[in-house]
Amino acid sequence: MVSQLVALERKPLEQMQRDAGRLQTQVSSFGRLQSLFSSLQDAANKLTGTTLWQTSTATSSNTGAVTVVGGSTAAPGAYAVNVTTLAAGQTAAGTATYADTAATVGSGTLTLELGSWSGSSFTAKPGSTSVTVTVAAGDTLANLRDKINAAGAGVTASIVSDASGVRLAMRSTETGAVNAFRVTAADDDGTNTNATGLSAFVFDPPNAAGSMQRTQTASDAEATVNGIAVRSTTNELTGVVEGLTLRLRGTTTQPAEVAVAADRDGIAKAVRDFAEAYSNLARSIIDQSKYDAATKTGGPLQGDSTVNNLMDRLRAVINTPSGASSAFARLSDLGLELQREGNLTVNSAKLDNALRNLPELRKALANSDAGNPGNDGFARRYSQLATQVLGVDGQLTARTEGLRKQITRNTEGQQRLEDRVERFRARLIQQYQAMDTNLSRLNALSGYVTQQLSAMNRQQNNG
Hints:
The protein has helices at 2-9, 11-48, 50-54, 141-151, 264-289, 305-319, 348-355, 358-366, 378-390, 395-462; strands at residues 56-60, 66-68, 77-85, 91-93, 108-118, 121-124, 131-135, 155-162, 165-172, 180-187, 213-216, 221-225, 228-232, 236-241, 244-248, 256-262, 291-292, 297-298, 336-338, 344-346. By secondary structure, it is an alpha+beta fold. A five-stranded antiparallel sheet has the order 1-16-3-12-13, with no helix packed on it. The model has no long low-confidence stretch (mean pLDDT 89).
């Protein structure tokens, strides 16, 4: 009986719990709209930013000789590139051969210096410091290789095998004439240029004949760009054409034609991404606010005035012409067309036509006119709308905060009702326990009276 009475008392709690579930669903729905509005804002900001419109693409007529590295911010134009010489690092190979890498190489020190050679004259590289490698008695060819590589001298060593045995080779770590190297020795055998012991690894022509021999000369890359001679220590030309990096891969007999043009494919993708972001938002609003006649159920945001107002504002931007561009007054003029379902589709033919007139297309999307908002571009308008909606005082923020406050009040109301029901339960239990106690007493009294009456009846019958 107590359980049934308490269940009746808790009946309003069921409605409060249903209300809480509905409110939580609405908060989630508005959270989804906030995320989609943010995506629309990101897509709009990409169209209004400067990076997209300044990015260009470059192509080369001879990729075997010249390629373009990464993206480009170069102004549209054409460049004829002739490559005379590629940059290279110096390579020197030992003339002394060994049975294997475990052969000992003598002892003493090797000094490695970076610089440039002019005939037999060596000039140290400005700012560089010579590095000394100490070789102990018993060190092997493999030990020497490893010590040179660990020294950080700008020279790497390797061991090469041929029909005569194994020998040491050295190579500049970086290309360019200034990154050539000289190797001198302080040989413990007392002679530093006799091609035995550590002297076998000297490269200092003409002072060490018979030691290391140069197999490749360090050189700079040399080329002409539109007839202007350029030089680089590497095979990448950076800054020769502002905003463009050219990688040289081979010499040319005819100029490689490098053409730079605006990145129309990147702009087209940004426009399509914007249309997709708008469509995702519009579909979500429609789905969450519609009524399904078949199931006779409404979406979680059906009838919500905030959502209806947001949809009206989204459509108003599309339906209001812009004075930003003389060529594209409406969004549909550049290929973005509003459908009955509420989404935006891309008319490829119109968009391709608009991409042929980038200055006007940029105005139509990105123009900003503080004095006359009617001249703002369409993407600029949507960016501003998203900023208003998502701001601290924006519609979505305020509506979500209002729902959270309702949830808090609902939670507090449920707790108060639970407390009241518990007090009601305790009062009922107390009352029924008292009633049980009194009933027990009455039952005992009834038994006593019955016994007394029975005794009186027996006395009368005996008398």
